[in-house]
Amino acid sequence: MKDFKLYTITGEEFHPNRDLVTVMEQAILGGSDIIQLRDKTNSKKVVFEKAKQLRELTKKYGVTFIVNDHIDVALAVDADGIHIGQDDLPIEEARKIVGENKIIGLSTHAIEEAREAERAGADYIGVGPIFHTKSKVDVVDPVTTDYIRQVVQEITIPFVAIGGIKLHNVDQVLEAGAARICAISEIVGAEDVQSVCQQFIEKINQKVKL
Ligand code: 3NM
């Protein structure tokens, strides 16, 4: 898969007065190089419509596009990949459906899950929640930057740190060894989405040479 630095996940509840595509375009213009559509509330029909719009947007900018949960929607709009969780289909089964050319990302919250994801053929893993977050309901206690250090030592597939990451605490995450950062609320809830992304990218570039 094409490597990335700043992963923005949609969170429309954080920008009730602004349009989804506009906000995500600002994120891309600020340097976000991978976008995920995550919608746990709307019908598949609505998710599909949003996915079509974001596919068009990401194609225009050459940015990777991932769909959360809905494998069928991801295939229907020809997204670059899917992101699934611990309670979804096993990676091997998801792989049979999407094929070798799509990206499969998996959320992990402990080193055993990371090991299993690698063994099963995930293309990347989410590592989190690093800090407390209000953006995910079923999430476990924060895993802290200790989990990042474990993953750096043991896991060879790419990982992205997620959960409660803000401009004011991202340095701790980078110092622990993360090379890729993911955020929802800090980015899409910002007044100036583009500027927040630029600031994340600057911090990543200061600490990491991918
Ligand atoms: N997954 P925010 S934490 C979607 O740990 C998601 O797997 C997590 O949102 C995980 O940047 C999380 O607003 C929410 O904290 C991230």
From TrEMBL:
Keywords: Magnesium, Metal-binding, Thiamine biosynthesis, Transferase
Pfam families documented for this protein: TMP-TENI
InterPro entries in UniProt: Aldolase_TIM (IPR013785), ThiamineP_synth_sf (IPR036206), ThiamineP_synth_TenI (IPR022998), TMP_synthase (IPR034291)
Class in the EC hierarchy, top level: transferase
Pathways involved: Cofactor biosynthesis; thiamine diphosphate biosynthesis; thiamine phosphate from 4-amino-2-methyl-5-diphosphomethylpyrimidine and 4-methyl-5-(2-phosphoethyl)-thiazole: step 1/1
Stretches assigned to the Thiamine phosphate synthase/TenI domain: 6-187
Annotated cofactor note: Binds 1 Mg(2+) ion per subunit.
Cofactor(s) needed: Mg(2+)
Membrane-traversing stretches: none
Amino acids binding Mg(2+): 69, 88
Family: Belongs to the thiamine-phosphate synthase family.
Record's protein name: Thiamine-phosphate synthase
Organism: Alkalihalobacterium chitinilyticum
